[in-house]
Amino acid sequence: MTHDRRHPRGSIRSRLLIGFLLMSLVTLGLSTLLSAVMDLRLFRGQMIRDLEVLAAVVGENCVSSLVFQSPETAVRHLSSLQGEYQIRLAVLLDTDGGTFAHWARAPGEGPSLGRGPLKGWLAADVEVSHSILYDGRPIGRLILRGRLDELRRQFLNYLGIGAPAALATLGIAWTLALGLQRRIGGPILALARRSRAISADRDFSVRLPDPGAGEEITTLVQGFNAVLQGLAERESELARQYRALDQANEKLRHLAMDLAMIEEKEKSRLAAELHDGPLQQLALAQIHIEVATQRKHEESSDRLQLGIELLSGAIRELRSLQFDLSPPVLETGGLPAALSWLAESTQRRWGLTMTFRQVGTLPALDRPRKVLLFQCARELVMNVVKHARARVGRIELTRRDGCLELLVEDDGVGFRASPDPSDACTSGGYGSRGVCERLALVDGALTLENLKPGARVRLWIPIGPETR
Amino acid sequence: MGVAPRPAAASGDDPNLIADLKVAYLYNFTRFIEWPQSSLGARFDICLVGAPDLAEAARALERSDKAVEGRPCSIRQLGTSAVLDACRILVIGEGAVGQLAELVDRSAGKPILVVGNAPGLAHRGAAIGFVLRPDILGEGQRLRFEINPSALQGRGLKVSAQLYDVAEVIR
């Protein structure tokens, strides 16, 4: 199982951290903004109120100037605003709206008015107007134009305070977020680690304890444990099915072995029938013909003699066939005797020098293994006869390390291609596949090797307790 | 910095206009001078002595709804020997310049504001004296007034600083 360690959206830890920081920054930013807006608004209102009070005071002082038509005095009063640094222009209007007197801080600045109220939060100028009453009637109006530099300065102050505060908050939020991240993300990360370990070890019997880190984590752990439970059950079911499959395979092997036995029994029965049936009859016919040749005409005796010879040949062939199918010596004399007969029979029938040797004491084999080993030996010897073009061959049977080893060797042309000793069942050819399949029934093995000249085939079968 | 030209009412070329302006000033003085409450009767008497040129304008004031401390203005034309006790403002015109000193003496110690309706009277004992000054633009004359603080002493009158502001104060 592979784990994708690339996290396109970041790990849960980094996401938690970024989330905390963003939340803190947004909260801080909004609160600072609201605070600044409120404070600037109050500050602006206070500045405008100050201007209005100033206008009221100066306007009141200008009453006598208006009443007694003394613009010089009015100018003197307006000039007193020189000390108020934020005032740029003061204009005293009479009842007709004409300019009665004016004062400006900047030389050359005329009494042009009507700029209106503050434009925007940080507008530079503001105008306030104060109506001057005398005997309950308006006799004039004083207009002051002021600068709101202070407002800008205040705004810059906010920036100066807000930026370090934001940095400090960021640091504190970072520290807090790290702590919270460990507390919240810890159980999830532990869960992820356990998940990887369980996945690697394939140990589904493990159950995670409840970390007690909140309802969601508990639900997650319970869900994880439920998945593990499901996996364990599936694993158990799988193991059970494997066992059933092994048992089925074992049965199949037994069935195959039984089939081989049935085949051998059938051959034995066939051989017996050949012996008891046609061969007996042919032998009897031979006897009758022999008698006839002694009693009939000389003329027919040649033909009868020929018939006798043919009958003798057929009898020999049938007998040989009977032995091939199931040599009686395997039942009567055991495997070494049968292999000895095989060597001798091969030499007699095919003109090949073939010997058999037994090394050491052999265990008592059950019939299936005995038959199987003989069938394998006969197959291998027939391979030598058919393909090896050999002059000499030998068969050897040895008990070795809990196994029984059968060796068939010749001095022929060997295998065409160098066989793979580890995969003889597919690389050997010449009937070795059939031998392999038979050996597989009893957990046996086979190796092939070229001797230059010649070839050697070596096979083993385990000696089971029941065979001893 | 500068002063805009004043309307025609400020110029001193038209005698009627000047008279109206002077009477208006008289009334305006009451807004910047405080008389003792005990001295105020049912009416606020403005007495004219030797100032017939202000009579018509003064009558107009009397007919108007203007009041001092809630008291209607009353205009009285008096002779130089008349009793002055009820007068709260005593205007001495050209016709009584010769009796100025006597009138000042007779009103001394009383809450009477003596106003001189002729040039230089503030220098001669009147508390306030009307004067005509040339307009700074040279387009006519403007009515101004002088205040003589020493002439106000001992009369129980409280004069607002604003009045001093617009007046020519005699030191």
What would you note in describing this structure?
The complex is a heterodimer of chains A (468) and B (171). With 468 residues, chain A is an alpha+beta fold. Among the domains of chain A are: 27-170, Beta-Lactamase; 329-468, Heat Shock Protein 90 (2-Layer Sandwich), CATH 3.30.565.10. Helices cover 60% and strands 16% of the residues of chain A. In chain A, the strands form 2 sheets. Chain A has a 5-stranded mixed beta sheet with strand order 5-6-7-9-8, covered by helices on one side. A 4-stranded antiparallel beta sheet of chain A has the order 2-1-4-3. In chain A, helix 1 (12-61) packs antiparallel against helix 4, helix 5 (215-276) packs antiparallel against helix 7 and helix 6 runs antiparallel to helix 7. Chain A is rod-shaped and about 195 Å long. Residues 1-7 of chain A have low confidence and may be disordered. Chain B is of the alpha/beta class and 171 residues long. Chain B has 5 helices and 11 strands. Chain B has helices at residues 15-32, 55-63, 100-107, 149-152, 161-166; strands spanning 2-3, 33-34, 44-49, 67-68, 71-78, 87-92, 113-116, 128-134, 141-147, 158-159, 168-169. In chain B, strand 4 and strand 5 (71-78) form a beta hairpin. In chain B, helix 1 (15-32) crosses helix 2. The two termini of chain B are 28 Å apart. The relative contact order of chain B is 0.18. At the A-B interface, helix 2, helix 3 and strand 2 of A face strand 1, helix 1, strand 9 and helix 5 of B. Strand 2 (99-104) of chain A pairs antiparallel with strand 1 of chain B, so a sheet runs across the interface.
Gist?
The complex is a heterodimer of chains A (468) and B (171). By secondary structure, chain A is α+β, with helices and mostly antiparallel strands.
Choose one word for the global shape of chain B: globular
The assigned structural class of chain B equals alpha/beta
Which value, in Å, is the CA radius of gyration of chain A? 60 Å
Oligomer: heterodimer
Q: What average pLDDT do the residues of chain A reach?
A: 81
Q: What share of the residues of chain A does DSSP label as strand, in percent?
A: 15-25%
CATH topology category name of chain B: Rossmann fold
CATH architecture of the domain at 27-170 in chain A: 2-Layer Sandwich
Which strand order spans the largest sheet of chain B, edge to edge or round the barrel?
4-5-3-6-7-8-9-11
Average of pLDDT of chain B: 88
**How many DSSP H or I helices of chain B?**
5
Q: Order of helices and strands of chain B, N to C?
A: EHEEHEEEHEEEHEHE
Q: CATH superfamily name of the domain at 27-170 in chain A?
A: PAS domain
Order of helices and strands of chain A: HHHEEEEHHHHHEHEEHHEE
Largest sheet of chain A: 5 strands, mixed
Strand order, sheet with most strands of chain A: 5-6-7-9-8
Radius of gyration of chain B: 15 Å
Output the structural class of chain A: alpha+beta
**According to CATH, what is the topology of the domain at 27-170 in chain A?**
Beta-Lactamase
